[in-house]
Amino acid sequence: MPTSRRSFLKNSTLASAAAAFPALVRGQNLNSKLQVACVGVNGMGYSDLHNVGSHAAVKFVGFCDVDANRFDKADKEFPGVKHFSDYREMFSTLGDGFDAVTVGIPDHMHAPVAVAAMQRGKHVYCQKPLAHTVWEARQMRLWAEKKNLVTQMGNQIHSSIEYRMGTRLIKEGAIGKIKEVYSWVGVTGNERTRMFQPPPSAPVPANLNWDLWIGAAPMREYAPAYHPFIWRDWQDFGGGGLGDFGCHIMDPVFTALDLTAPISVHAKNSGINNQIWPTHETINYVFPGTQYTAGKTMKLTWMDGGLKPSHKLAQMPGDIDLPGSGSIFIGEGGTMVLAHVAGPRLYPLDKFTGFKYPKEEGRSHWHTWVDACLSGQKTSDGFHYAGPLAETVQLGNVATRLAIPKIDPITGRMEEANRVLEWDAANLKFTNAPEADKLLTKTYRPGFEVPAA
Asked: What are the structural domains of the chain?
């Protein structure tokens, strides 16, 4: 449960715990408030700001957004907080006067901002998918470890009663050891724009600092198709359907099965260029087995853009549809369908008639992070966990960028030109595809680099 200001002040252990965390030691007014700066204050940024700010021990000391028109909601709820357009200027100006940062901006700028904060010893709450590339996700984890910081990824359903219940059922063996998992989401990479090439440029609005919005990405001319939301469809800025929802929907799979890094990944899709994500795709991952899986390896299949696994795999009655998004856990003793977001359901029905679901409670994902910053305890969704999850998501995007479909001239059927990519997580490379290694990272514009930990 969230810690109240009164119970926080009464907790005599906090002073000694805080001594181990340099960001807290440097902050002012530590005995009463956690001083938080926010990068991105509208959309997801506002959702994080609102929920973090509802904790009694939080004080906002800086709001940063590249669009001057997007401070209105934050200012109405938390008036008097100083505005900035450049996160680097905000960090420099605040200096030791802030302890933690929330990052709720487009994916391509997560790592530049979060790493800059962690270099200063600040705790970080960063929106999913944590980072824009595999290499960035690795550096996010390493910087958090190096600086001994409290971190959290913004896949808030990790703390919800639905996902907590689902992961608990798997760990307690409700359907036995898991043989295979299918995960899917209804949206797709270019569902919102249906564009396959850059849109026509337009004058930059006076309220928008376009240079700062572009940030680490290659410079291009402004178009309304990019800001404030449809940036997710473009490879330079977002991660398509997988980048948008992978860290949500695959999160309970990782948590329930204690997964880490896959050993291989393969993709097929509807067609892709170097601008936009495909209309739909299927990603096949193979993971090392764990104590919760049936074999030495386990297959996880991801689908998006309207693709779904076969209804028969779930062992559901014919008159019950698969949810629009979610996962099927196929166990040795039954199946579990975990919708996004709804409570888990066990099948076949005749086997689980009368099954008593255990009691579980949800938690505030944001308050969990604040409480951890104050107490010095890790969260279950810190970058030690979220980093490998985000790496897996971005490995899928590497594979799909290499999946160039071709048409068999005789049968007319679409075949795959790419192969299974074998992943060496320890050395951050593919063992059989040097061309894929080039897609693990990217080139940064000067001033927005992400340094290695």
From this structure: 5-157+364-382 (3.40.50.720)
Name the strand (E) or helix (H) holding 299.
strand 297-304
Q: Supply the pLDDT for residue 14.
A: 29
Contact between 190 and 418 (Cβ < 8 Å): no
Q: How confident is the model at residue 164 (pLDDT cuts 50, 70, 90)?
A: very high
Q: Are 151 and 144 in contact (CB under 8 A)?
A: yes
Following DSSP, what letter does each residue of 319-368 receive, concatenated?
Answer: TSPPPSSEEEEEETTEEEEEETTS--EEESHHHHTT--PPP-----HHHH
Q: How many residues does the chain have?
A: 453
Say whether 124 sits in a helix, a strand or coil: strand
The pair of three-digit structure tokens given for residue 408, joined into one six-digit string: 């068999």
Query: Would you say the pTM of this structure is higher than 0.70?
Result: yes
For residue 9, pLDDT beyond 50: no
Say how many CA atoms lie within 13 Å of 381 toward its Cβ. 32
CB-based contact 421:432 (threshold 8 Å): yes
